């Protein structure tokens, strides 16, 4: 089968489309014929070698974690899906014609393979960070970096919980945030005053998705570092706030929650751009701009 791999760390140009053996589903796993794969920031950081100390790779290595497609092999002990089912989920080396998934959910009929391919990491991350920040019904929650993959999911999960959501993104994403159910505002000078105007009674929790260096401001707004959780600003602990990481976590609960909301028409993750497998490097470069609405997706013919 065709798969995207790299044999050395480096820029987008190190990604190659090569022929490799098709993988098989182990116990508790499924294999899919991939229709599309979601692009996450972690993937270009790993490719670049930025995480080689914490997540050393054996090269050559495959790329990707999120995908949607058709089940074509079911491992021992798996009883909830059969060959031929359409699913989305999370696994390994998903920029390929076939990939093994370790967590999955049925793809809602109303959601395209391209859109569902981007769901897994945003859903798991968003649900985790809202749980860690203690967000519940009636809370006012601030989402910094609300229009990307994780931020869009965090806004929609928080709205589903009955929270009042303030979303921070650039000027071109203000209407988009409002369409998700958030009160939108822009980042940049005056942010604290703009948020105070939107939430005169105060902010109960803040989740930092963008990692834009505003942990002190988020603590000022919530009045308590315990109510601030970041997924991408590793200076947060210096201020008493937390960083949430998801390595090795099972995504099944989040995937099912997302599928439930998407089936009801209450969860969407726009496909910002699609790239064919052969242009996986360009897809990662598009993600790395940090200004993508929803998700960049790699499609498999
Ligand atoms: N720790 C974890 O478990 C975990 C899991 C997943 C992802 N991550 C990391 O979390 C980060 C976000 O992931 P993502 O996939 O959601 O990213 P993304 O899709 O690239 O979204 C980035 C978002 O940040 C906004 N943004 C850009 N500059 C900003 C600024 N100065 N202030 C506030 N918002 C700003 C963008 O809005 P505009 O386009 O309007 O500027 C966009 O909404 C990445 O670094 C990723 O690697 C961590």
TrEMBL record:
Provide a Gene Ontology MF annotation, just one.
Answer: oxidoreductase activity
**SUPFAM superfamilies hit by this protein:** GroES-like (SSF50129), NAD(P)-binding Rossmann-fold domains (SSF51735)
- Reading the lineage from the top rank, the first entry is Bacteria
- What Pfam family is a match, any one? ADH_N
Which keywords accompany this UniProt record?
A: NADP
The answer, when asked if NADP is one of the entry's keywords, is: yes
Domain (Enoyl reductase (ER)) ranges: 10-298
- Name this polypeptide is given: NADPH:quinone reductase-like Zn-dependent oxidoreductase
Question: What organism is this sequence from?
Answer: Nonomuraea jabiensis
């Amino acid at each position: 089968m065709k798969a995207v791999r790299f044999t050395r760390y480096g820029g987008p140009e190190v990604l190659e489309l090569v022929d490799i053996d098709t993988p098989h589903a182990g116990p508790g796993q499924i294999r899919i014929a991939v229709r599309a794969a979601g692009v996450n920031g972690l993937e270009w950081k790993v490719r670049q070698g930025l995480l080689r100390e914490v997540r050393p790779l054996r090269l050559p290595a495959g790329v990707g974690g999120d995908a949607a497609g058709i089940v074509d092999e079911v491992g021992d002990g798996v009883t909830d899906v059969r060959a031929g089912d359409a699913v989305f989920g999370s696994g390994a080396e998903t920029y390929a014609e076939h990939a093994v998934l370790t967590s999955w959910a049925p793809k809602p009929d109303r959601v395209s393979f391209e859109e569902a391919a981007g769901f897994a990491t945003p859903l798991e991350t968003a649900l985790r960070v809202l749980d860690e920040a203690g967000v519940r019904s009636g809370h006012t929650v601030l989402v910094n970096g609300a229009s990307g993959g994780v931020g869009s999911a965090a806004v929609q999960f928080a709205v589903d919980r009955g929270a009042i959501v303030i979303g921070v993104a650039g000027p071109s994403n203000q209407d988009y945030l409002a369409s998700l159910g958030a009160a939108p505002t822009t980042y940049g000078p005056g942010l604290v005053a703009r948020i105070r105007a939107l939430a005169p009674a105060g902010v109960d929790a803040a989740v930092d998705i963008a990692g834009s260096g505003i942990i002190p401001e988020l603590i000022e707004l919530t009045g308590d570092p315990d109510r601030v959780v970041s997924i991408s600003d590793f200076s947060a602990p210096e201020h008493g706030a937390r960083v949430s990481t998801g390595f090795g976590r099972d995504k099944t609960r989040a995937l099912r929650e997302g599928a439930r909301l998407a089936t009801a028409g209450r969860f969407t993750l726009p496909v910002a751009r699609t790239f064919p497998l052969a242009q996986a490097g360009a897809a990662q470069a598009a993600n790395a701009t940090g200004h993508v609405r929803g998700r960049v997706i790699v499609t498999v013919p």
